[in-house]
Amino acid sequence: MTPTEPEHDPGDAPSDPAADASRPIDLTDEAALASLRQRIDDVDRRLIEALSERARIVSDIGRSKRASGYPIYAPHREAEVLRRVLEANPGPLSDRTVEAIYRELMSGSFMLEQPIRVAFLGPEGSFSHVAAGRHFGHSVDLDPMDAIDTVFDEVATGRSTYGLVPYENSIGGGITDTLDAFQSHEVSIYAEALIEVRHSLLSNVPAAAIRRIHSKPQVFTQCRKFLAARFPHAELVPSLSSSHAVRLVAEAGEDGDAAAIGSSLAGEIYGVKALFEHVEDVAGNITRFLVLARESARPSDDDRTTIMFVTAHRPGALVDVLGVFRDHGLNLSHIEKRPSRRENWEYTFFIDVDTHRESEPAIAAIAAAERHCRLIRVLGSYPRAQRIL
Length: 389
What we know:
The chain is α/β, with parallel strands linked by helices and 389 residues long. The chain folds into four domains: 41-107, Chorismate Mutase Domain, subunit A, CATH 1.20.59.10; 116-197, Periplasmic binding protein-like II (D-Maltodextrin-Binding Protein, domain 2), CATH 3.40.190.10; 200-277, Periplasmic binding protein-like II (D-Maltodextrin-Binding Protein, domain 2); 297-383, Alpha-Beta Plaits (2-Layer Sandwich). It has 13 helices and 15 strands. Strands 1, 2, 3, 4, 5 and 11 form a six-stranded mixed sheet that branches. It has a five-stranded mixed sheet with strand order 8-7-9-6-10. A four-stranded antiparallel sheet has the order 13-14-12-15, with helices on both faces. A hairpin with a 7-residue loop joins β13 and β14.
């Protein structure tokens, strides 16, 4: 080093604010903590300004939608927005967190455009309630119904803008009440949501005092191993719904001997403590919910179509119907059957086809399938759910 060159110590170099932000700070250093908090306040101010600008644009769009009769909730547009923001997400927030933020943001946007009422299978605290909140957010009007058939009726008559019903569970299979309701109501499937079902054992008495456990029979099946290991001698009391079971336990108070298996949301609503969480036997227990509407959803980049049909009374008719979709290169991702309730031993079949009803292969396949059916009805085409909520 020559005498004319200044001595350089890397420690004297100006710090990089971005690098400093990733380093732990000394929480006793009040000046450093205050500086970071000020940066957060500045970001929050810019966020509010951006959200307000977005809301003003949404309000303008809402006025145009109302004037033209365009649906306020457009699943294909929702899917597009979520896909775009998740592709742009650099972290460190997870995609699940970003999606939850945007769903709440879109929920508030719905109310700026036009109030939305969503019917779901209640009471409050049910897993349908959980699903409705996660899919639509909490700014819309969520209205509990006493039966799945009532949810269909609310939508069909226009008393509710949309309805949300369970369609199939990854462990228990198809939901028979929903399949039956499709046979007697003229509604369309508008969207779908995948919800992870996590059961909790809830009670306001100690575990050792529990002698009775309330819940839906299907829930007992999904939690069989836990119940056998922890409460082998407890009486299992069937209930109309898991949330109704939690409400019964809440009414018993601390002097009872009962518990319920239900959602943590139900425990929060009715004031019942969660003694054990994640008591389901199989992790990743997913329920697929359908959004019902009176209108049809527009095509997106990745759609699913649900079709209901009754085959002609001749040998091989079902094979012929399924073969039509195969021959047109269409994948069937789901099939169910239920008694038609018109004739003994006549069945209604439900299939999911991985395309939109307006695609050329679907149009051709449905027309060909009609030749083998006494009845065929497209229940709806809608964007396929990409993530578990």
